[in-house]
Design goal:
There is one protein chain. By secondary structure, this protein is mostly helical. Helices cover 79% and strands 4% of the residues. It has five helices and three strands; from the N terminus they run H-H-H-H-E-E-H-E. It has a three-stranded mixed sheet. Strand 1 and strand 2 form a beta hairpin. The radius of gyration is 42 Å and the shape is rod-shaped.
Length: 236
């Protein structure tokens, strides 16, 4: 393989190394993961508060039902006494009627409170259920994204090792003066080898001289661009 083709392969490997280094240096994923975690923790707090409130509603609901049941039992007992044991005792009859009326009023009030709590419970249950589903979704997306990032970083590290070995192998096959030339141009312009197409250098986008084209056509060693100094190559 001639020197120019080796330089092309070397340039290609350097480009790949640069791409992988960009991947390894890009920390934007940290910000994305932090935002996902922040959203998760915020929603989790709301979810926990919702579940706690829901539990309190159900406890109150249970207590209210027990109180209603106790009041109804009291009404039944009072009505039994009223219709079976009062006789003509007007004072007792009036007292019991007032008691029954008072207890029925309390029952109505508590039943209204129960209905209000049932409506609140239904609404809150839906909110808690929705929050739970969103939390699961965020957790899945977090783990999925984190996994893909870890795989991407691992792949970049492994590819770097491979490219560094390949670069070392290619460099060992090139003459030292050509390597020095390549390294110097690359340090100045990043891309050291540029394609010449229709007489124009792909590196600087400027037309080169006829003499340079002639030298390149003769394949008489390494040829540089008249304008930017990059090493030129031409497709066969």
């Amino acid at each position: 393989m001639d020197d120019i083709k080796l330089l092309l392969f070397l340039q290609e490997k350097y480009n790949k190394v640069e791409e992988n280094n960009k991947i390894l240096k890009d920390n934007s994923y940290i910000k994305i993961l932090s935002k996902m975690k922040e959203d998760f923790n915020k929603l989790k707090k709301e979810y926990i508060n919702g579940k706690s409130e829901l539990e309190n509603i159900r406890k109150k609901y249970k207590v209210l039902n027990e109180e209603i049941e106790e009041l109804r039992k009291g009404v039944d007992e009072d009505e039994y006494i009223l219709y079976n044991k009062c006789g003509n005792d007007l004072k007792m009859i009036n007292t019991l009627q007032e008691e029954i009326e008072s207890k029925n009023k309390k029952i109505n009030e508590k039943e209204k409170e129960v209905m209000s709590m049932l409506e609140k419970e239904e609404k809150l249950s839906k909110e808690v259920s929705t929050a739970e589903n969103i939390l699961k979704k965020i957790k899945h997306e977090f783990n999925s994204y984190k996994g893909s990032v870890e795989n991407k970083l691992h792949a970049a590290k492994e590819e770097l090792k491979t490219y560094e070995k390949e670069m070392s192998s290619i460099r060992s096959k090139l003459p030292s003066d050509i390597l020095e030339d390549f390294d110097y141009i690359k340090s100045q312009k990043k891309v050291a080898v540029a394609l010449l197409q229709n007489g124009v250098c792909a590196g600087c986008k400027i037309k080169v001289s006829s003499l340079t084209i002639d030298e390149l056509n003769k394949k008489s060693g390494i040829v540089h661009c008249d304008n930017c100094g990059r090493i030129l190559w031409k497709e066969d």
